[in-house]
Amino acid sequence: MLRNIQKSTELFHENSNYTPDGVSSPMRAFRQVGSNPISLSAGKGSLVFDIDGNEYVDFLSSFGACLLGHAHPKVIEKITMQAQKGTVLGLTSPLEHLLAEKIVKSTSALEQIRFVCSGTEAVMTTVRIAKAHTGREKIVKFIGSYHGHSDVLLATPATCGLKTKGVTKGISEYLGKDILLCEYNDKEHLTALFSQFGSEIAAVIVEPYATNMGFVAAKDGFLHKIRELCTSYKSLFIFDEVVTGFRFNFGGVCNLMDIDPDLITFGKIIGGGLPIGAYGGKAKYMSHVKIGGDVFQSGTFAGNPMTMTAGLAALEIMEQDNFYEELEEKGKTLKTSIENEFAKHSLPFIFTHYKGLGGIAFRNDTESMSNYADVKTQRYDIYSKTHQKLLDKGYLLAPSLEEPIFINAAHTHEQLIGLAKAIADSIHEVFYEEEERINYAPAM
Ligand SMILES: *Cc1c(COP(=O)(O)O)cnc(C)c1O
Fold this sequence. Notes:
Number of strands: 16
Bound molecules: pyridoxal-5'-phosphate
Strand order of the largest sheet: 4-12-11-10-7-5-6
Strand content: 5-15%
Helix content: 25-40%
Largest sheet: 7 strands, mixed
Distance between the termini: 25 Å
Oligomer: single chain
């Protein structure tokens, strides 16, 4: 039976009078999957509920922010207690100190950290520090990556005609002149950029797993190559861990990679479901934002006690024994189940993952994707139809093929097995309806 989403649809149209596209963040309008957006009324554990009363197993996990699932009782308890003591106090509080200490101690590359209210602000500030520290202007970023919506990271690169996403008007042209683009995993091009511009490069910013173009893993040696180039040209190496931080292990994923980035950004998970961003690194870089230093950053709500207490409560749960082992097991369950289900229907797509984060490449290729050019070869049209069918079956995935599948701690193995079957069935239905199987798969 198909869902009724009449209330969602009506509300969306009404909201569109007051808010552009009826949403505060564009992906929520479901334009990328070409369907009617749903409006959610609640989330509990692994589930979310829409305003028409439909229930979904949630694999969007608030774009990865809810690693514990929704409304974890321990986090709620702390938030409720703090709310009675004031939500924002204007000055610092012990909670801020506790969370900073926990995060700094979790990650060997960190000596100091500062809290802001979003990943966007965190990344923006690291770039500011890198420019101030090196006295240089150029930033290298990777095609298809997303590092928040600050001007410096959305500027249209003036060079090389390479297309990336998130390009927008309204940003001064000169900012684009300082952005150098490179395909993810392309060591040769990166080396060439450094030989040409090395002495002007302030920083390279990279996600250690590219999570804003579906799921793309860094190939062996790629991140180490960046480290090596940054060291020899005295550029700073910024790890954007807004998605990866605390997702795979207690701390930055750089801990697991034997890499020592100069600056790291965090966000999403570390706020325990409340708005947050954080940036940190060696004290010599962080000292730029000290009073009397040459970089300014501030924030009315930065380090507010609600977010700090929620973040602390979440981290205390994540730090318990086996927390990450269990997430990893769930990732394995999803992989095995997807492979079994895809084999049953002879579907040609593959699922790649690292622990609890992964994605399906919607393309007929047994190789995993390694850059944005690969990502763009996917069948976005098939994903759109699959996404719709999954909603009808009670599963919420990101409303874009360029987002991963976010496993969280509230998911059960049964739900993961269910998801795998639902995805395979949905793709199979799409193929069947479109007679795509002729193009893709042997006779069934
Ligand atoms: C989400 C995201 C950001 C921006 O974080 P916001 O809190 O949405 O501003 C930055 N970098 C990466 C890698 C992200 O996924």
